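RECORD CONTENTS
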Amino acid sequence: MASQQVSRARFAGLDTLRCMIDVEMPSAERYAAIARRWFDAGFSVLAPEQRAALETGPKLPPEAIRRPIPGGPPGATWAFVSATRYFPKNVTKAGIQTYTHKESSRVWSPASWKWFLGQLADPPNDATLGTAHLQDEGSPSPGYQEDPRIRLTAWRPKELPTWLRLAFSAAESDLNDPERQQSWLAFIRETVAELNPAFGIIDYQYDSLYGKTAVERLVRGIGVDRAEKIPRSRELLRGYDWLTICPQELADRLGGVEALRGISAFHEVAQLPGGGVWLLATADYRDYDEAATDRVFRALAPVLPPGTPVLANQKRAEQGRDYRIVYQDASTVRPATA
């Protein structure tokens, strides 16, 4: 039975979820099609009310359009779009590549939305859409940002331009609504269906959309930085959570779809048409508890990086802000059975 709201003591201090999908960078033409769909469909799925407010509601005043920070009439919706490109500059004596960059950012309007989608034809290193709700009258700062609502990004790390990450963040409380859960999952599944993703996950936003999973942060056996970790996505599984997208190479090592369906760790196991396997731990996100986390860990242990996770911060753990991870060396786990 699902709880009435998302609430688990160990994770009470975290309230934002993120989705991260990593794949080798496609051609510029295919990237443009993938990214445009990511932003257009994602905006409608993740923030339908805010999109409607921007498209059909009262326009922001000119001063709110011009200013570089969120601001406008109290209670309004505010959003921005940005495109950033990096260019190699020089190499230091220590052998480190340095970069210069050009960033263009605009407050959302029909014109800037058209401009933003057009920017995707020449793939930027970072394309981002972000929205916010402006505080209502009677609040401490009426007309200024209350909380970021969503972030959507298509990111090519400057040091790894041959890789692409599609990512978004949104409030965990959105998944108190089962229909919203299904909307998220349908959007993600349609995105990855033909991508042959190297990795995908919905987890807590422990750091940022450009950051690391709990496994990457706490287990030493996967590499030091993202320049090492991301290219190893088809060799070691970089994380696990309620939704895990396993690359085909690792799913095959686990015995394939039928073998994964034969154990009790997942509510849904599905072969993606373009490659990769969709692993959904529980039908309802609110049922994804520590027992479910443990089942997923044991099922995927053979392809997780070896090593015992190092507790990041005991004080944070005591405050309920620890990582949603099993603190055990995956290499010591016996194979999962039905």
In short: The first strand starts at residue 16 and ends at 24.
